[in-house]
Fold:
Amino acid sequence: MHSGDHDPESGGHDHGHHHHHGHNHDHSELDEMELRVRALESLLTEKGYIDPPALDALIETYEKQVGPRNGAAVVARAWNDPGFMKMLRDDATAAISSMNFVGRQGEHMVAVENTPGTHNMVVCTLCSCYPWPVLGLPPVWYKSPAYRSRAVIEPRSVLAEFGVTLPEGTAIKVWDSTAEVRYLVIPQRPAGTGGMSEEDLACLVTRDSMIGTGLALTPDEARAKGLLS
Ligand code: FE
Structure:
């Protein structure tokens, strides 16, 4: 299981951080755990115990709905409560666990806040480190070799492909997740949301806006998507 652990000095990778995963990092191949999961899934499907489309739907729900709602609640609270925003900036792990969002892959959280001058974007160049307690399961594209390499080299083009065009003067900071540190992007609060409740504000916070590949929705956009009444 440890055959893929990287030594930054050994060449091949230059990530500037240590990555201590209990899994293989060979980029395009399935690691041992993935092979076991796939074998198990095939077996269960063959026996008729699971229905792959139903399983996909379940995974998609955790990827897009259940998981990211936690992060959205954190962001909405930060927008609404300057004291909580400060706590999140100072010690995101404590702030997030104060809302009971705790668990594996969330032990050391750092919140990075978007401002008019700086946009933050998160990647794991080595594999798919992701803050599970606040975002759930990582989307497929987050784990893709293309995103992992291009997010660092040409973040502006990657953002454009996600439909995000930032002003020329906005700097883009790319954060490389590791086994030790997971990042949560605090998107900018959209204009015209002054009187909104925390619950409604959370409806504006998309998964992608917390990875930095999207922006928070405006109230009109959220209504058009049926996320806000
Ligand atoms: Fe990783």
